Amino acid sequence: MTLNMLKASLVELDARSRAKAIVDAGSFRELLGPFDQLESPHLEAQGIVPQSDDGVIVARGDIDREPAVIISIEGDFQGGGIGEVSGAKIAGAFELALRDNKNGIRVRPVLIFDTGGVRLQEANYGLLSIAEIGSAIIELRNYIPVVGLIPGKIGSFGGMSITAGLFSKLIITREARLALNGPEVIEQEAGLEEFDSQNRQQVWQTIGGEQRVAGGLADMLVEDDIPSIKEAIHAVFAKVESEKPRSAQVECYRNFLRSVDPSKEIEPIDVRNLWKRIVHGTSESTPIEQGTENTPNTRGYQWFETLTGTTTRHSEVQSVLCSDRELCGKNTRFIAVVPNSNSRFPRARNGEVGLEEGWAIAECVREAIEEDRYGEKRAIVAIVDVPSQAYGYREELLGIHQSCAAAVDAYATARKEGHPIISLIVGKAISGAFLAHGMQANRILALDDDEVNVHVMSKKSAARITRRSIVELEKATEKVPAMAYDIHSFSTLGALYEMIDGVDADSPDIEESKKVEERIIKAISDVKSGSTGIEHRLEHSGRKASILVRERLEEQW
Fold first, then answer.
1. DSSP states of 5-51 as a string?
2. Which of 203, 277, 331, 460 is deepest in the core (most CB within 10 A)?
3. Ordered per-residue pLDDT tens for the chain, 557 residues
4. Rounded to whole angstroms, what are the CA distances from 422 to 5, 358, 373, 425, 458?
């Protein structure tokens, strides 16, 4: 008891004090602080008082006498939710650190998490920002370790858990939690029998920091003690890392999942023991037993078949379709996620991106990268019709956020290596599923259709989390288009390359199919004449705050 009282807690500090505590004494310098008054322009219209730093602290300083940038999320403001300004501060800081490290100026990057994920009051701005944060981290890792720290109180949830899965090293305390879907959201979407959000013991045993390290989903478990945390961060930067980031270890984690039998009860201790066997190479991975495929004729399935002439499936994960065909004489890979009512994991039977789907997408993309390593880089087309990520107890216990991170990593890596990545949204593009399958594209196309939707959460869950009625949420979309589900509202944010009209999204005829194919070819051609990044999304009036934040951040860097 006496020893605990002597510890210097990081968890109990606010975001600004956390950042100060991590850098060397006397070196803290905040960028875009409260006096810069860069508030969210979207909250006041919804009756929410904005905060002058929008809940994210960006600071320069030294870590172990070397220049660093520390980004710290304030969990006490809007649950640490990521909106346009806060997201731009994080992405912009990583982008500047990338620029410097590319130019031989070492800057050590650290992100301190305390976030529930996307800020629902800014919804699709959060999705765009998280995609940009992930893109910057994946490239920055090539030059210097990128360190994530999850100290608690909130932890890291939603799209930011996918971000956590991309870091070179992830440090976590026992007081922290890491999961894609929060317990309350799982209970809302899948029922009390799936996950009782009030069962605190089950929550901590499933997604708590100790379990995440023991189950292979975080790297270092530290006490909530500032000197111990700083020592762990220093150790990461002092070591020459040779191991691939977790999100690039596709075969290792696919073996891990192959060893799980979802038809049986699985406890946290089972996951720990299984991970030990994987690490020590003593686990016997067995081929996945597939049931007879049973795929409803969804838009994703139909458009994949229309554009490829086949329904070729991933060899083990039959809900992932993958096939190559020539477009204008050039080899092109198409990937789609479709329902499979016989999926091993019941929560991923309706077209959701689940545990197996994320890793299978990553495998399909990385196979193309490897095959084209010394030749022309084929284009990769993600056909998007994904209702959500899978919501379930097994999904969180086994790390669905890491599965989605693997897909994000693969698409971004392919893009950086010169593969044109095109997304074609033909149906739903929701939440973590869209982050994993579509948001890392160079160009995003969408059919102009009422059933083509982009958002971060179902209306029912969003109403519960924000404590509003669905009517109130729908009214708010009139003032903040980023909260709306329709594709026209999404297009005002600047992420769409083209909206394709005049096409029957459910039953395209030959001419309509040809029209979509021509637009894909045009998008591929446009990518080949431009950069490999996604920065063009910022060249739009719908991203004014994102642009301003980056400009001001660079001035103060």
1. HHS--STTS-HHHHHHHHSPTT--EEES-GGG----SSSGGGT----
2. 203
3. 445 556 899 999 999 999 999 999 999 999 999 999 899 999 998 889 999 999 999 999 999 999 999 999 999 999 999 999 999 999 999 999 999 999 999 999 999 999 999 998 899 999 999 999 999 999 999 999 999 999 989 999 999 999 999 999 999 999 999 999 988 888 888 888 888 888 889 899 999 999 999 999 999 999 999 999 999 999 999 987 778 999 999 999 999 999 999 999 999 999 999 999 988 887 666 656 655 566 678 999 999 999 999 888 888 999 999 999 999 899 999 999 999 999 999 999 999 999 999 999 999 999 999 999 999 999 999 999 999 999 999 999 999 999 999 999 999 999 999 999 999 999 999 999 999 999 999 999 999 999 999 988 777 777 777 777 878 877 777 778 888 889 999 999 989 999 999 999 999 999 999 999 999 999 999 999 887 888 888 988 889 999 999 999 999 99
4. 54, 18, 19, 10, 25
From 76, 228, 260, 35, select the one nearest 149 (Cα to Cα).
228
What's the Cα-to-Cα distance from 113 to each of 140, 204, 307, 412, rounded to whole Å? 18, 17, 41, 22
Using alpha carbons, select from 362, 323, 361, 356 the residue that is nearest to residue 340.
356
Structure-block tokens of residue 470: 């669905």
Phi/psi region, residue 117 (left: phi>0; alpha: psi -120 to 50; beta: rest), is left
Rounded distance between C-alpha atoms, residue 509 and residue 494, angstroms: 29
CA distance 187 to 6: 39
Q: Which two tokens stand for residue 173?
A: 């305390």
Residue type for 214, please? A
The position carrying tokens 């009512």 is 341
Look up residue 196 and give its amino acid.
D
In one-letter notation, the amino acid at residue 206 is T
Distances in Å between the alpha carbon of 156 and those of 148, 164, 176, 338, 436?
A: 10, 8, 8, 28, 17
Residues 149 and 525: their CA atoms lie apart, in Å, by: 40
316 near 293, Cβ under 8 Å?
no
pTM for the full predicted model: 0.95
In Å, the largest CA–CA distance within the chain is 76
Strands 496-500 and 320-327: unpaired
